[in-house]
Design goal:
Elements: E1 11-13, H1 22-30, E2 41-48, E3 52-60, H2 72-75, E4 78-80, E5 83-87, E6 93-96, H3 98-111, H4 119-132, E7 144-153, E8 165-175, E9 186-191, H5 208-223, E10 228-232, E11 240-243, E12 247-252, E13 257-260, H6 269-280, E14 285-288, H7 292-301, E15 304-311, E16 315-324, E17 327-330, H8 338-351, E18 362-364
Parallel strand pairs: 1-3, 9-10, 9-16, 13-14
Antiparallel strand pairs: 2-3, 2-8, 4-7, 5-6, 5-7, 6-18, 7-8, 10-11, 12-13, 12-15, 15-16, 16-17
Helix pairs in contact: 3-4, 6-8
Pyridoxal-5'-phosphate binds at residues 82, 206, 210, 242, 245-247, 266, 268-271, 311-312.
Length: 366
């Protein structure tokens, strides 16, 4: 579906009358956790078939009024994004490759039969919210303001078709350092009877349904003492795809980085960036199918020296061990890999403005 609006949207601002006092806000920012606290404002933009995108506004944060027949509640026509705002040493506030999130939101929208939002409007929605709630961007090392844009079908209609009324929103949540006590490698559980997405499904779209289907296997992972699930391809259960919300990269002894390629994997912006940094350093990068057997044999022979997961929330998480029914690859107490950690440092240095940004990845928000 195309967007009837061709000019950039103008945002109204309805200030909150119940914004938190600075003492309360500072207490939250001292220990924000993840996804628990929200800033004083939010963005809302309406869309309808007839009017296109309209009524862009920053409003007080608060509950949405949804008709109980809103089709998102029944048929899960929903997509989202996740990115962070980083406070730099001079107090300016930046985001990392927001145009890539805008492009991915448009791809997800196409798959879910939702309207596309123009890149300029997407970036402006972040800029408006972060400017108004800039005091909510924490300053301690590795902290950020997590931004969650999302789009839902709001039309009150139980017939099954693409909704003719849609809402786009952005909420923001201060985020503490993911690894408060230093980066700790994790164990991963191989899900051998559930898959995340199949051929022609929604695996490449960032949509809540993919997360709903990952929750039961995720609970299994916890039962086996693992932090995350590794999903295999749905047809053969042979090739590795990704974790519930993070991509996977394998590092070979000769310095090659390999990441699974498939139509059912969500293309992470963190993964893309990390692989580009590795290429800058002269590493070879391969995007191709990778079987579980290749991982197992490579770790056993020493050909695979490091494995990590990556995504916006934790940036890079080293994977120490892979466990499954009758399978154990690697050891739970393995130390983080050297390349893993140096790529992590390089990327976070760029994000926090501690190092040059040769690719022009950073966009100033406030
Ligand atoms: C968001 C997401 C990722 C990571 O993407 P980033 O852009 O790096 O944050 C990976 N896998 C899934 C399923 C995701 O939803």
């Amino acid at each position: 579906m195309s967007d009837a609006t061709t000019f950039p949207l103008t945002f109204e601002h309805v200030p909150s009358t119940s914004a938190r006092e600075s003492a309360e806000r500072e207490a939250i920012l001292a220990d924000p956790g993840f996804g628990k606290h929200f800033t004083d404002h939010m963005v809302q933009i309406d869309w309808s078939v007839d009017a296109g995108w309209h009524e862009a506004r920053v409003t007080p944060y608060g509950p949405l009024q949804l008709d109980p027949a809103a089709s998102v509640l029944h048929y899960a026509q929903e997509i989202f994004e996740g990115l962070k705002a980083y406070r730099h040493a001079d107090d300016s506030i930046w985001s990392f490759r927001p145009e890539a999130n805008a492009a991915r939101l448009r791809r997800s929208a196409t798959r879910l039969a939702l309207p596309e939002l123009a890149e300029a409007d997407f970036v402006e929605s972040l800029r408006r919210l972060v400017s108004i709630d800039s005091a909510w961007v924490p300053s301690a090392p590795e902290t950020s303001l997590y931004l969650r844009p999302f789009m839902i079908a709001t039309e009150a209609f139980l017939g099954v078709r693409a909704a003719q009324k849609v809402g786009y929103y952005v909420i923001a949540s201060p985020a503490g350092a993911y690894f408060a006590t230093g980066v700790t490698p994790v164990s991963i559980w191989i899900s051998d009877h559930y898959s995340r997405a199949g051929r022609g499904g929604m695996g490449a779209a960032k949509t809540g349904g993919n997360y709903a289907s990952s929750l039961l296997p995720q609970a299994e992972a916890y039962e086996h003492g693992c932090a995350q699930v590794l999903f295999l391809d749905s047809e053969e259960q042979t090739y590795i795809e990704e974790l519930g919300g993070m991509n996977v990269v394998l590092v070979y002894r000769d310095g090659t980085l390999v990441t699974p390629q498939s139509d059912s994997i969500l293309e992470g912006i963190t993964r893309d960036s990390v692989l580009e940094l590795a290429e800058d350093r002269g590493h070879r990068v391969e995007r191709r199918r990778v079987s579980l057997a290749e991982w197992r044999d490579g770790v056993a022979s020493g050909d695979i020296t490091e494995v990590f997961a990556c995504g916006t929330a934790a940036v890079i998480t080293p994977i120490a061990q892979l466990k499954g029914d009758g399978v154990e690859i690697g050891s739970a107490d393995a130390a983080p890999g050297e390349l893993t950690m140096s790529l992590r440092d390089e990327l976070t240095d760029i994000q926090y403005g501690r190092r040059d940004d040769p690719h022009g990845w950073m966009t100033r928000l406030a």
